[in-house]
Amino acid sequence: MSLLFIDGCGEIYDTASAAQFWTAKDAGVDVVAAGGRRGGAAIRLDGINDDIRIGVPGAATVVCGFAFKRVTFSAGNDTILTLLGHGVIHGTLETTDAGAMRVTRSGSVELGISSGGLVSTDTWHYCEIKYFVNNGAGTVEVRLDGDIIINETALNTLGSGVAEVQGFIFLGNGISNATLIDDVYILDTNGVSPYNDFLGDSRIDGLLPDGDGFSSAFGTTFPASPTTHFTKVDEAAPNGDTDYNESNVANEIDLFDFAALPTVSGGATVWAVQASAFLNKQDAGPAPCRLLTRPTSATFNGAQQEPSTDYLYKHEIWELNPQTSLEWTESEVDAAEFGVEAL
After folding, report:
1. Residue 102 sits in which domain range?
2. 11-49 burial, b if ≥16 CB within 10 A, otherwise e?
Protein backbone atom coordinates (compact mmCIF):
# COMPACT_ATOMS: atom_id res chain seq x y z
CA MET A 1 0.00 0.00 0.00
CA SER A 2 0.88 3.66 -0.10
CA LEU A 3 -1.87 6.27 0.01
CA LEU A 4 -4.41 5.18 2.59
CA PHE A 5 -6.74 8.18 2.91
CA ILE A 6 -7.30 11.58 1.31
CA ASP A 7 -9.96 14.18 2.08
CA GLY A 8 -10.75 17.76 1.17
CA CYS A 9 -12.67 18.03 4.46
CA GLY A 10 -16.23 18.70 3.43
CA GLU A 11 -16.16 19.39 -0.29
CA ILE A 12 -18.47 16.43 -1.03
CA TYR A 13 -20.20 15.97 2.35
CA ASP A 14 -21.68 17.99 5.20
CA THR A 15 -21.71 17.75 9.00
CA ALA A 16 -24.38 15.04 8.99
CA SER A 17 -22.46 12.75 6.61
CA ALA A 18 -18.90 13.43 7.86
CA ALA A 19 -19.01 10.35 10.12
CA GLN A 20 -19.82 8.23 7.06
CA PHE A 21 -16.72 9.52 5.24
CA TRP A 22 -14.47 9.24 8.29
CA THR A 23 -14.68 6.42 10.85
CA ALA A 24 -16.31 8.50 13.59
CA LYS A 25 -16.76 12.05 14.85
CA ASP A 26 -17.96 13.77 18.00
CA ALA A 27 -21.17 15.79 18.02
CA GLY A 28 -19.29 19.08 18.27
CA VAL A 29 -17.42 18.55 14.99
CA ASP A 30 -18.85 20.60 12.11
CA VAL A 31 -18.24 21.00 8.41
CA VAL A 32 -18.15 24.70 7.60
CA ALA A 33 -18.93 25.44 3.97
CA ALA A 34 -16.66 28.46 3.56
CA GLY A 35 -14.03 28.06 6.26
CA GLY A 36 -11.29 26.27 4.30
CA ARG A 37 -7.90 27.61 3.38
CA ARG A 38 -8.97 28.23 -0.25
CA GLY A 39 -12.41 29.56 0.66
CA GLY A 40 -14.10 26.16 0.41
CA ALA A 41 -15.11 23.71 3.11
CA ALA A 42 -13.16 22.70 6.21
CA ILE A 43 -13.73 20.63 9.34
CA ARG A 44 -14.12 22.66 12.54
CA LEU A 45 -13.23 21.03 15.85
CA ASP A 46 -15.22 22.74 18.56
CA GLY A 47 -13.21 22.38 21.75
CA ILE A 48 -10.71 20.05 23.37
CA ASN A 49 -13.01 17.04 23.63
CA ASP A 50 -14.21 17.14 20.02
CA ASP A 51 -12.45 14.92 17.53
CA ILE A 52 -12.79 13.24 14.15
CA ARG A 53 -11.00 9.97 13.44
CA ILE A 54 -10.10 7.59 10.67
CA GLY A 55 -8.92 3.98 10.81
CA VAL A 56 -6.35 2.69 8.33
CA PRO A 57 -4.51 -0.59 7.71
CA GLY A 58 -1.75 -0.89 10.30
CA ALA A 59 1.82 0.12 9.43
CA ALA A 60 5.01 0.69 11.42
CA THR A 61 5.81 3.91 9.55
CA VAL A 62 3.15 6.41 8.51
CA VAL A 63 3.07 9.89 7.05
CA CYS A 64 0.19 12.32 7.56
CA GLY A 65 -0.16 15.74 5.96
CA PHE A 66 -2.88 18.27 6.75
CA ALA A 67 -3.65 21.96 6.73
CA PHE A 68 -4.68 23.48 10.05
CA LYS A 69 -5.57 26.79 11.63
CA ARG A 70 -5.61 27.51 15.35
CA VAL A 71 -7.83 30.57 15.48
CA THR A 72 -6.54 31.22 19.00
CA PHE A 73 -4.22 29.38 21.39
CA SER A 74 -5.29 28.05 24.74
CA ALA A 75 -2.81 27.94 27.61
CA GLY A 76 -0.17 25.20 27.50
CA ASN A 77 0.12 22.38 24.97
CA ASP A 78 -2.83 21.21 22.87
CA THR A 79 -2.88 17.95 20.92
CA ILE A 80 -3.98 18.37 17.32
CA LEU A 81 -3.24 14.81 16.11
CA THR A 82 -3.06 11.45 17.91
CA LEU A 83 -1.59 8.30 16.34
CA LEU A 84 -3.20 5.11 17.64
CA GLY A 85 -2.43 1.42 17.34
CA HIS A 86 -4.38 -1.50 18.81
CA GLY A 87 -6.11 0.76 21.32
CA VAL A 88 -2.85 2.41 22.45
CA ILE A 89 -1.64 5.98 21.94
CA HIS A 90 1.78 5.80 20.29
CA GLY A 91 2.33 9.45 19.48
CA THR A 92 0.75 12.88 19.68
CA LEU A 93 1.45 16.05 17.72
CA GLU A 94 0.78 19.23 19.67
CA THR A 95 0.86 22.98 19.33
CA THR A 96 2.03 25.14 22.22
CA ASP A 97 0.90 28.58 23.29
CA ALA A 98 4.39 29.78 22.31
CA GLY A 99 3.75 28.83 18.68
CA ALA A 100 5.91 25.68 18.72
CA MET A 101 5.06 22.13 17.66
CA ARG A 102 5.78 19.21 19.96
CA VAL A 103 5.69 15.41 19.60
CA THR A 104 5.17 13.05 22.53
CA ARG A 105 5.02 9.35 23.16
CA SER A 106 1.88 8.12 24.92
CA GLY A 107 0.70 11.73 25.27
CA SER A 108 3.31 12.63 27.90
CA VAL A 109 6.96 11.75 27.07
CA GLU A 110 8.44 14.48 24.91
CA LEU A 111 10.15 13.15 21.77
CA GLY A 112 10.88 16.48 20.10
CA ILE A 113 9.88 20.15 20.12
CA SER A 114 10.44 22.92 17.60
CA SER A 115 11.43 26.47 18.29
CA GLY A 116 8.63 28.86 19.19
CA GLY A 117 6.95 31.39 16.98
CA LEU A 118 6.46 29.03 14.02
CA VAL A 119 2.70 28.55 14.40
CA SER A 120 0.72 31.76 14.18
CA THR A 121 -2.84 32.19 15.35
CA ASP A 122 -5.62 32.63 12.81
CA THR A 123 -3.25 31.48 10.04
CA TRP A 124 -3.37 28.43 7.81
CA HIS A 125 -0.30 26.18 8.03
CA TYR A 126 0.47 22.92 6.26
CA CYS A 127 1.96 20.29 8.57
CA GLU A 128 3.37 16.82 7.83
CA ILE A 129 4.53 14.19 10.31
CA LYS A 130 6.39 10.93 9.67
CA TYR A 131 6.30 8.55 12.62
CA PHE A 132 8.16 5.21 12.85
CA VAL A 133 6.98 3.07 15.76
CA ASN A 134 9.84 1.23 17.48
CA ASN A 135 10.95 0.80 21.10
CA GLY A 136 14.51 1.99 20.49
CA ALA A 137 15.12 2.87 16.85
CA GLY A 138 11.99 4.98 16.34
CA THR A 139 12.09 8.22 14.37
CA VAL A 140 9.95 11.36 14.19
CA GLU A 141 10.09 14.08 11.55
CA VAL A 142 7.76 17.05 11.39
CA ARG A 143 7.59 19.59 8.58
CA LEU A 144 5.70 22.87 8.76
CA ASP A 145 5.04 24.86 5.61
CA GLY A 146 7.78 22.88 3.87
CA ASP A 147 10.48 23.33 6.52
CA ILE A 148 11.82 20.53 8.75
CA ILE A 149 11.16 21.66 12.32
CA ILE A 150 11.59 18.38 14.24
CA ASN A 151 13.86 15.50 13.20
CA GLU A 152 14.69 12.99 15.91
CA THR A 153 16.13 9.46 15.68
CA ALA A 154 16.97 6.53 17.98
CA LEU A 155 13.79 7.02 20.00
CA ASN A 156 11.35 4.85 21.86
CA THR A 157 8.18 5.77 19.93
CA LEU A 158 6.15 2.72 21.01
CA GLY A 159 3.30 3.45 23.36
CA SER A 160 3.03 -0.26 24.17
CA GLY A 161 1.97 -3.47 22.49
CA VAL A 162 2.16 -3.81 18.70
CA ALA A 163 4.46 -1.45 16.80
CA GLU A 164 2.07 -0.12 14.18
CA VAL A 165 -0.29 2.80 13.67
CA GLN A 166 -3.90 1.95 12.84
CA GLY A 167 -5.74 5.21 13.37
CA PHE A 168 -5.53 9.00 13.40
CA ILE A 169 -7.54 11.38 15.57
CA PHE A 170 -7.71 15.13 14.92
CA LEU A 171 -8.62 17.18 17.99
CA GLY A 172 -9.60 20.72 18.80
CA ASN A 173 -7.93 22.82 21.46
CA GLY A 174 -9.45 24.21 24.63
CA ILE A 175 -11.31 27.11 23.04
CA SER A 176 -14.62 26.82 21.19
CA ASN A 177 -14.48 27.04 17.37
CA ALA A 178 -10.71 27.54 17.48
CA THR A 179 -9.40 24.73 15.24
CA LEU A 180 -9.93 24.06 11.52
CA ILE A 181 -8.40 21.29 9.39
CA ASP A 182 -8.35 20.79 5.62
CA ASP A 183 -6.58 18.81 2.86
CA VAL A 184 -5.65 15.63 4.72
CA TYR A 185 -3.57 12.77 3.33
CA ILE A 186 -2.30 9.62 5.06
CA LEU A 187 0.13 7.08 3.64
CA ASP A 188 2.40 4.27 4.73
CA THR A 189 5.90 3.70 3.39
CA ASN A 190 5.32 0.26 1.87
CA GLY A 191 4.78 1.41 -1.69
CA VAL A 192 6.97 2.96 -4.36
CA SER A 193 8.27 6.50 -4.66
CA PRO A 194 6.89 9.15 -4.54
CA TYR A 195 3.88 7.66 -2.72
CA ASN A 196 5.84 6.37 0.28
CA ASP A 197 7.17 9.63 1.74
CA PHE A 198 6.28 13.28 2.30
CA LEU A 199 4.16 14.65 -0.53
CA GLY A 200 4.52 18.28 0.52
CA ASP A 201 1.81 20.92 0.71
CA SER A 202 -1.14 19.27 -1.04
CA ARG A 203 -4.70 20.18 -1.87
CA ILE A 204 -7.60 17.78 -2.26
CA ASP A 205 -10.37 18.97 -4.55
CA GLY A 206 -13.79 17.34 -4.48
CA LEU A 207 -15.55 17.01 -7.85
CA LEU A 208 -19.17 16.04 -8.47
CA PRO A 209 -20.84 14.29 -11.43
CA ASP A 210 -22.09 16.63 -14.14
CA GLY A 211 -23.11 14.16 -16.86
CA ASP A 212 -23.90 10.54 -17.66
CA GLY A 213 -20.97 8.46 -18.87
CA PHE A 214 -20.24 5.51 -21.13
CA SER A 215 -22.61 3.15 -19.28
CA SER A 216 -25.86 3.99 -17.48
CA ALA A 217 -27.37 0.64 -16.53
CA PHE A 218 -28.63 1.25 -12.98
CA GLY A 219 -32.28 1.99 -12.33
CA THR A 220 -33.32 5.65 -12.02
CA THR A 221 -36.89 5.40 -10.75
CA PHE A 222 -36.12 7.13 -7.44
CA PRO A 223 -37.71 9.51 -8.34
CA ALA A 224 -38.97 8.61 -11.81
CA SER A 225 -38.12 11.99 -13.31
CA PRO A 226 -35.64 13.02 -14.55
CA THR A 227 -34.25 9.85 -16.10
CA THR A 228 -30.65 11.09 -16.18
CA HIS A 229 -28.40 9.18 -13.81
CA PHE A 230 -25.94 11.87 -12.70
CA THR A 231 -28.71 14.11 -11.34
CA LYS A 232 -29.46 11.44 -8.70
CA VAL A 233 -25.89 11.56 -7.30
CA ASP A 234 -24.64 15.11 -7.87
CA GLU A 235 -25.37 16.66 -4.48
CA ALA A 236 -22.48 18.32 -2.66
CA ALA A 237 -23.79 16.58 0.47
CA PRO A 238 -25.48 13.19 -0.11
CA ASN A 239 -29.25 13.13 0.43
CA GLY A 240 -29.79 9.44 1.18
CA ASP A 241 -33.06 8.08 -0.18
CA THR A 242 -34.28 11.37 -1.62
CA ASP A 243 -32.89 10.42 -5.03
CA TYR A 244 -30.49 7.65 -6.00
CA ASN A 245 -29.56 5.02 -8.59
CA GLU A 246 -30.05 1.34 -7.80
CA SER A 247 -29.11 -2.06 -9.20
CA ASN A 248 -29.78 -5.67 -8.23
CA VAL A 249 -28.27 -7.13 -11.41
CA ALA A 250 -24.69 -8.39 -11.46
CA ASN A 251 -22.27 -6.48 -13.69
CA GLU A 252 -24.53 -3.49 -14.27
CA ILE A 253 -22.43 -0.32 -14.45
CA ASP A 254 -23.12 3.36 -13.92
CA LEU A 255 -20.36 5.73 -15.09
CA PHE A 256 -20.35 9.51 -14.82
CA ASP A 257 -18.60 12.53 -16.24
CA PHE A 258 -17.27 14.94 -13.62
CA ALA A 259 -16.63 18.63 -13.35
CA ALA A 260 -13.15 19.82 -14.34
CA LEU A 261 -10.37 20.30 -11.81
CA PRO A 262 -9.89 23.84 -10.54
CA THR A 263 -7.16 25.79 -12.27
CA VAL A 264 -3.89 25.79 -10.34
CA SER A 265 -1.46 28.59 -11.15
CA GLY A 266 1.61 27.11 -12.81
CA GLY A 267 -0.03 23.70 -13.21
CA ALA A 268 -0.31 20.88 -10.70
CA THR A 269 1.14 17.46 -9.98
CA VAL A 270 -1.72 15.00 -9.54
CA TRP A 271 -0.61 12.61 -6.81
CA ALA A 272 -3.70 10.43 -7.01
CA VAL A 273 -7.38 10.25 -7.84
CA GLN A 274 -9.94 8.88 -5.41
CA ALA A 275 -13.45 7.77 -6.31
CA SER A 276 -15.92 7.93 -3.43
CA ALA A 277 -19.47 6.55 -3.48
CA PHE A 278 -22.19 6.87 -0.83
CA LEU A 279 -23.64 3.35 -0.75
CA ASN A 280 -26.02 1.09 1.11
CA LYS A 281 -27.81 -2.20 0.52
CA GLN A 282 -31.54 -2.74 0.84
CA ASP A 283 -31.74 -6.25 2.30
CA ALA A 284 -29.90 -8.96 4.20
CA GLY A 285 -27.08 -10.87 2.56
CA PRO A 286 -24.13 -9.66 0.50
CA ALA A 287 -24.46 -6.93 -2.13
CA PRO A 288 -20.89 -6.54 -3.43
CA CYS A 289 -19.83 -3.80 -5.79
CA ARG A 290 -16.68 -2.07 -6.95
CA LEU A 291 -15.70 1.42 -7.98
CA LEU A 292 -14.49 2.02 -11.52
CA THR A 293 -12.59 4.48 -13.63
CA ARG A 294 -12.61 4.89 -17.41
CA PRO A 295 -9.76 7.24 -18.34
CA THR A 296 -10.39 6.95 -22.09
CA SER A 297 -11.40 3.79 -23.93
CA ALA A 298 -11.18 1.07 -21.26
CA THR A 299 -12.79 0.60 -17.85
CA PHE A 300 -10.64 -0.40 -14.86
CA ASN A 301 -11.89 -2.04 -11.68
CA GLY A 302 -11.20 -1.24 -8.07
CA ALA A 303 -11.32 -3.74 -5.22
CA GLN A 304 -14.58 -5.43 -4.24
CA GLN A 305 -16.55 -3.39 -1.69
CA GLU A 306 -19.25 -4.58 0.70
CA PRO A 307 -21.98 -1.99 1.43
CA SER A 308 -23.91 -2.19 4.70
CA THR A 309 -27.57 -1.48 5.42
CA ASP A 310 -26.48 1.96 6.62
CA TYR A 311 -25.22 4.53 4.15
CA LEU A 312 -21.42 4.69 4.21
CA TYR A 313 -18.79 6.06 1.85
CA LYS A 314 -16.61 3.56 -0.01
CA HIS A 315 -13.39 4.70 -1.64
CA GLU A 316 -10.91 3.60 -4.28
CA ILE A 317 -7.57 5.35 -4.83
CA TRP A 318 -5.69 5.21 -8.13
CA GLU A 319 -2.21 6.64 -7.65
CA LEU A 320 -1.42 6.10 -11.34
CA ASN A 321 -3.63 6.33 -14.38
CA PRO A 322 -4.41 2.64 -15.00
CA GLN A 323 -4.68 3.30 -18.74
CA THR A 324 -1.07 4.50 -18.99
CA SER A 325 0.55 3.25 -15.73
CA LEU A 326 1.94 6.79 -15.38
CA GLU A 327 1.08 9.69 -13.11
CA TRP A 328 -2.27 11.30 -13.90
CA THR A 329 -2.26 14.62 -15.70
CA GLU A 330 -4.88 17.29 -15.14
CA SER A 331 -6.29 16.78 -18.63
CA GLU A 332 -6.56 13.01 -18.05
CA VAL A 333 -8.48 13.53 -14.83
CA ASP A 334 -10.82 15.98 -16.57
CA ALA A 335 -11.49 13.44 -19.36
CA ALA A 336 -11.95 10.41 -17.11
CA GLU A 337 -15.23 8.88 -15.98
CA PHE A 338 -15.84 7.22 -12.63
CA GLY A 339 -18.62 5.05 -11.33
CA VAL A 340 -19.87 1.87 -9.70
CA GLU A 341 -20.42 -1.72 -10.83
CA ALA A 342 -22.82 -4.11 -9.07
CA LEU A 343 -21.32 -7.59 -8.61
Report:
1. 3-188
2. bbbbbebbbbbbeebbebbbbbbebbbeebbbbbbbbbe
